[in-house]
Amino acid sequence: MAARIGPADVRLCLGTASVNCGPGPAVATIRFRDRRTLAVLSLDPVNRFGDAYSDGGVEVEGDLVAGLVSVNRALAKKPGPHWLSKLRSLVPHTPLRDRKAVEHHYDLGNDFYRLWLDEQMLYTCAYFDAPDRSLEAAQAAKMEHVCRKLGLKPGESVVEAGCGWGALALHMARHHGVSVRAYNLSSEQIAWARKEAQGQGLASRVEFIQKDYREIDGRCDAFVSVGMLEHVGLANYGVLADVIARTLDRDRGRGLLHFIGRDWPEPLDSWISRRIFPGAYPPTLDETFRGVFVPAKLSVVDVENLRPHYALTLRHWRERYERAVEDGRVSFDERFRRMWRLYLAGSEAAFRTGWLQLFQVVFAPSGSGGMPETRAGLYDAPEGLTWNEPTF
Amino acid sequence: MAARIGPADVRLCLGTASVNCGPGPAVATIRFRDRRTLAVLSLDPVNRFGDAYSDGGVEVEGDLVAGLVSVNRALAKKPGPHWLSKLRSLVPHTPLRDRKAVEHHYDLGNDFYRLWLDEQMLYTCAYFDAPDRSLEAAQAAKMEHVCRKLGLKPGESVVEAGCGWGALALHMARHHGVSVRAYNLSSEQIAWARKEAQGQGLASRVEFIQKDYREIDGRCDAFVSVGMLEHVGLANYGVLADVIARTLDRDRGRGLLHFIGRDWPEPLDSWISRRIFPGAYPPTLDETFRGVFVPAKLSVVDVENLRPHYALTLRHWRERYERAVEDGRVSFDERFRRMWRLYLAGSEAAFRTGWLQLFQVVFAPSGSGGMPETRAGLYDAPEGLTWNEPTF
User: Fold this and answer.
1) SS3 assignment, position A90
2) B142 to chain A: nearest residue by CA?
3) Which residues, at least 6 apart from A386, have a Cβ–Cβ distance to it below 8 Å?
4) Is residue A84's pLDDT more than 60?
């Protein structure tokens, strides 16, 4: 088993027997319930660990994230099955399949997500413009960071593809005076978002549409999608390209994609993909550019990698989640509670070790006139970047 | 002929006959010397225009850049020969072939380049942190922009691949206290750079090495290459990946590639490629990431598109060049003088229309600890970005 994992700084225990995987002091201890669990895991630790942990067949003592980080680093030295990634990513995504995947994850119930997300229910990477920001402040800063990159002006029109519980759409309308058409497949989320729009008096300027991104129509000045590309599937990037090309104004339009990505193609962890996010695939930048930007004739204006910000976001979520578990506020069974703990801790470990990246890509139609002269305004101008024709 | 070009805002003239290509007022007039020139150009305007202009078979009256911009925009609506791009880019670059290409362009003589480059002889895109900067100030700002993105610290080691006349290497050593090994194939440039290093008392900290990038050895904290990738050739990206992977420190290393690129694959203008830059190929971001970053296991940290800055840089160069021509300081013959005018004007037009992009890509070894928490320091911290382990 130790040989399968490689030289990670973890200790493996079965009954009174134990062994250190790595040469250094162990940051966590992995305890197996019985010989059978150990045998099953020895054959295929990467794919079997998630279920074994959820079922209680495996216990992790000490720092769960640090233990996973150490195991990730050790595994990273073994080559991954590159072709598998391609194979899985090419499974066709139909609107029906995507609707089921969305229901699997996002319709667990608003009450569950309220236990550990911020007040505005943002379920994507926050932006910590200072390290000591609260999760609430960092999510507001993320929304502003997106709006300021796009240089939104009052009266402009925005399309948002995959709007979650609607916080960004409402933020853009309230703070930047734009009108928004926001698309999402999840009925629970759309219901929540519409109620918020009513309550905030924004219903006339923010339209929440329960449709697939393929059904986006009309034109817009800005196209934004935060946390949806991971669920589109490589095989559909051409469809997304068509949607952006026909939607975005070619003279003054600009857009932003915010997504979990990879440094090189690899399948999503098989356990995450089975239990947490069916059909998800975090793409590389080159897959994204080749699949979406080249066919849509888009020009890349700016890319920012916010990897450490997602690790910290996940830490905030997990701390809130664990408090909710301790207080008996998580109504699901113990298996689910352990599964969700591992998902949050494993994701934090993946961003810390660089298995996952968080890319924000700003783009414009190729050759369009509008482009910020420099990015300084993003940090020091009240309204962020200016997307006019450069003065030079 | 007008049909070949499409609806550009230019007027075509032969003797006393003339016709407008587009519906709008003409920004420039293209005058043909005789029927034969018109006939040759009608068959293949894209490939024949450069030589015809250089030979005086064609004259452009009015605004040369505006005329080229208009023709570019009209041609952009016609699909380009995508496969040709691939074909040409795969012509093998051998060290000998690269040496000849370098000699063709860069060994025209330092005296020639001194006539129209800035004092420090930077022959790459400047950075206009304010639009009214002089070329000298904007080139200094570009060097600082690069150093601040890399967060260079005194005592660190830098490898520069393709160092031109050495200005950036000298700037890094003088203003950031690093030691630099800078590589270049051009004997004229290397001689100049070594003399500068001596004169500035930096010879002990900046080593100029007349070798191919393939021969780079040793280790470094930062790897930087400004304006070389265009000359490497797609087929050699794997070699460059090997060089970066074996050179860059995997724990605290980071790097920057600055290069002319494309939004989608296309061959370099055939005239530029024949007369000006043999073997050059401006890659797309996805070609760069797939060819260099994925095999070298690098993570993209930041991408900035400086397209308008190169248009303005080229305008500065052309204005200085035209003054030198007027003053009789350009010793080459009229054909060369016209060729160079068209090259500078055509390049400006290409950046203005978005045919060419200028990408600065900052990267680090995948999963390395050092990474700036945000990019704000690039604009407001005295030393630029900090590449420590994030505090969160």
Assistant:
1) coil
2) A374
3) A151, A372, A373, A377
4) no
How confident is the prediction for chain A on average, in pLDDT? 91
Among B21, B47, B78, the domain boundary falls at B78
How would residue B83 be classed by pLDDT, with cut points 50, 70 and 90?
very low
pLDDT score for B78: 58
Closest approach of A306 to chain B, Cα-based (Å) = 8
Residues 6+ apart with CB under 8 A from A381: none
pTM value is 0.92
Query: Which domain covers residue A50, as residue numbers?
Result: 2-78
| A350-384 burial: b if 16+ Cβ within 10 Å, else e | bbbbbbbbbbbbbbbbbbbbbbbbbbbbbbeeeeb
- Does any domain span residue A391? no
| Selection from A211, A219, A218 nearest residue A184 by Cα | A211
The domain that holds A220 is classified in CATH as 3.40.50.150
- What was the ipTM of the complex prediction? 0.92
CA distance A236 to A256: 18
Cβ separation A129–B353 shorter than 8 A: no
Give me the pLDDT at residue A276, please: 84
CA distance B151 to B118: 25
A357 and A228 share one domain: yes
CA-based end-to-end distance of chain B: 63
- How many helices (H) and strands (E) chain A has is answered by 16, 11
User: Strands of B28-32's sheet, edge to edge?
Assistant: B17-20, B10-14, B28-32, B58-62
Partners of A353 on chain B (C-beta within 8 Å) are: 367
Q: B297 and B190, same structural domain? A: yes
